[in-house]
């Protein structure tokens, strides 16, 4: 048995943009619905959503029937969490608030088997189809993708060094945290925040890496795509449900 190639990694490596959808509801059913929408990738959120290892694995199973790549955002850069979630089948990871190249190198090491890294060895788990994927351990890095989130001024200042780390595939801007950490809470459109976002994009480009961002407003997403961001999240299950239900009730006058 061969591992299915990672379509998101291939698309980004070729410089092709890929639209994504955030999955925040913690439900395999809602994630299955999102997976059928035609997006290039999904993000199962483990940082700001009620997800744990088991609920994330169930959503990976639900998404596996579709051609989109299901990525997982971990709650932290813990090597223990990286090992557990990767063994459960998460091969495309997003890690929040990466601030230094040293931190990025530690994350890559946690994703990699020895001698390159420290990922714990197991002969049978969901990631290698319970032992059915031949030579999985030697080739595991081939289909793995790592997106590190730049969410503070320190991360922006170190973006070039972070992008240069071998094994980092994407610099992904978290505009909410970045604006908050730059004293512009809720206003990622502020001039100094936009300048920081542009700096991250340039750092990724200079290193030959992809740049990503969350942009639930279409005008923002279109602009970021024109600027050169290629891993762009354009909506979330929670927001679509909340705004859709709000707008439906508001459309009636009783």
UniProtKB/TrEMBL annotation:
Residues 19-242 form the HpcH/HpaI aldolase/citrate lyase domain. Keywords: Lyase, Metal-binding. One of its GO terms (molecular function) is metal ion binding. It comes from the Bacteria. InterPro entries: Aldolase/citrate-lyase_domain, HpcH-HpaI_aldolase, Pyrv/PenolPyrv_kinase-like_dom, Pyrv_kinase-like_dom_sf. Gene3D superfamilies: Phosphoenolpyruvate-binding domains. GO terms for cellular component: cytoplasm. It holds the Pfam family HpcH_HpaI. Belongs to the HpcH/HpaI aldolase family. This is 4-hydroxy-2-oxoheptanedioate aldolase. The lineage of its organism: Bacteria, Pseudomonadati, Pseudomonadota, Alphaproteobacteria, Rhodobacterales.
């Amino acid at each position: 048995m061969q591992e299915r190639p990672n379509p998101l990694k291939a698309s980004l490596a070729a410089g092709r943009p890929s639209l994504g959808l955030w999955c925040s509801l913690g439900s395999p059913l809602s994630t299955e619905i999102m997976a059928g929408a035609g997006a290039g990738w999904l993000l199962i959120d483990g940082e700001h959503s009620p997800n744990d290892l088991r609920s994330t694995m169930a959503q990976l199973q639900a998404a596996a029937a579709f051609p989109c790549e299901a990525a997982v955002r971990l709650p932290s850069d813990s090597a223990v969490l990286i090992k557990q979630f990767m063994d459960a089948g998460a091969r495309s990871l997003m890690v929040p608030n990466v601030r230094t190249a040293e931190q990025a190198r530690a994350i890559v090491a946690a994703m990699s088997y020895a001698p390159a890294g420290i990922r714990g060895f197991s002969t049978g788990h969901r990631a290698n189809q319970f032992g059915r994927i031949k030579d999985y351990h030697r080739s595991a890095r081939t289909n793995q993708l790592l997106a590190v989130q730049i969410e503070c001024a320190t991360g922006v200042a170190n973006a070039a060094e972070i992008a240069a780390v071998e094994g980092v595939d994407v610099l992904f801007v978290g505009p909410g945290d970045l604006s908050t950490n730059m004293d512009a809470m809720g206003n990622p459109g502020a001039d100094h925040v936009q300048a920081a976002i542009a700096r991250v994009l340039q750092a990724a480009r200079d290193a030959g890496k992809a740049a990503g961002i969350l942009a639930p407003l279409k005008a923002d997403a279109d602009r970021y795509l024109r600027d050169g961001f290629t891993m762009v999240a354009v909506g979330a299950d929670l927001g679509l449900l909340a705004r859709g239900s709000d707008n439906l009730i508001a459309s009636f006058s009783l």
